[in-house]
Amino acid sequence: KIYFRKIREMRGVMPDLQEWEKSFPSGAQVLEVGFGPGIEFEWLVGRGYRLDGIDISHAMKIQLEKLLDEKLGYGWRNHARLFPYSLQDFNPGVATYDRIWAMATFLHVDKGEVPAMLTKYVRALKAGGELYLNFKVGMGPTKLDAEGRPFSNYSEESFRTEVLPFLEGVEIKKIWTTGVGEDKLKRSTQWLNMILIPKKSG
């Protein structure tokens, strides 16, 4: 509960999502991978999209449902759903979503699994669909933090050489680097952001 409240107090909706949302088709079916404290999920609910969200934390799901019920009433449940799944365990289907928002989630996938996971989620996009994701900028093999969570970091060059050739039916629409303040150890943090789309046949 402390983490949930703290993150919601620290920041608002990510500017990348606010800008990207301008391109969403009317009535889009959207998936958020790793909804966490629900800042972006709540904002997307308010925009009226049909929305699914997954997060590995069942406690986070319960807290967010309670918060949305208190703030919005129960009507939000008519067009939005939350599921307590990891991105590995969730089955997004094929051609299910118009947009997938995955902020700071795929970086917790071991590098050996990244190509398969990205391929799975891009397959879940409808024609014209897009997937946003990001990684911390860095090099080397996957590292584990003190809690045992994997961290897979890439530069644009390493992503293009280590991941892109092994993706099936996927291409990069846009890729860019941003700086986002400091991490918990007061180190400057850079993020590699990208939008992936299904590769056009022919």
Task: Fill in the keyword field for this structure.
202 residues; globular; 6 helices; seven-stranded mixed sheet; alpha/beta; 9 strands
Task: Assess the beta-strand content as a share of residues.
Answer: 25-35%
Order of helices and strands: HHEHEHEEHEEEHEE
Report strand order across the widest sheet.
3-2-1-4-5-9-8
Question: What is the CA-CA span between the terminal residues?
Answer: 50 Å
Summarize the structure.
This protein is 27% helix and 30% strand. It has 202 residues and is an alpha/beta fold.
Question: Describe it for me?
Answer:
The chain has 202 residues and is an alpha/beta fold. The protein contains 6 helices and 9 strands. The protein has a 7-stranded mixed beta sheet with strand order 3-2-1-4-5-9-8. Helix 4 links the parallel strand 2 (50-54) and strand 3 (80-83). The longest helix is centred in the N-terminal third of the chain and has 15 residues, at 58-72. It is globular, with a radius of gyration of 17 Å. The protein starts with a helix and ends with a strand. The relative contact order is 0.13. Mean pLDDT is 91; it is low at 182-186.
